[in-house]
Amino acid sequence: DLELGMIPLVPVIRDCIELIQPLAAKRGITIELTGVADLTVRSDRLRLRQVLVNLLSNAVKYNRPDGSVRIGLGADLAGRVRVTIADTGPGIAPERLSELFTPFNRLGAEVSGIEGTGIGLALTRRILEAMHGKVGVESRPGLGSLFWIDLPSG
Length: 154
Fold this sequence. Notes:
Blueprint: E1 4-8, H1 9-26, E2 30-34, E3 40-44, H2 45-61, E4 68-75, E5 80-87, H3 120-130, E6 134-140, E7 144-152
Parallel strand pairs: 2-4
Antiparallel strand pairs: 1-3, 4-5, 5-7, 6-7
Helix pairs in contact: 1-2, 2-3
């Protein structure tokens, strides 16, 4: 069950960064929050945190050593807030992007030594849809990936 309410976004993101920071530090990865604004979203706080931790964790795990993760915030005139999480990892081939949100499909990462089950992104999509949000990805091989989530603004 979801408990939808008006959630200030920046404090939730900062809490998630704090959780992921030790993993990032071990790999020399920096995390930067840009576009900090006083934005509020209509969501379930616990589920929003779950979504953000999953996306940030992936951005660190699948990044290159000494890479970076940039979190951006913005709002549009249609009453939506967008959070972007960009990494400097290897990127994903365009023909494989459609497979990302399929449960248990790790796009070959299961042989990489990187821990995971392959259900995080599928679960992220379901949670966001239940909160009237969306998730998507843009990626360029060799340059990294950018995941975005859109949520109703508060």
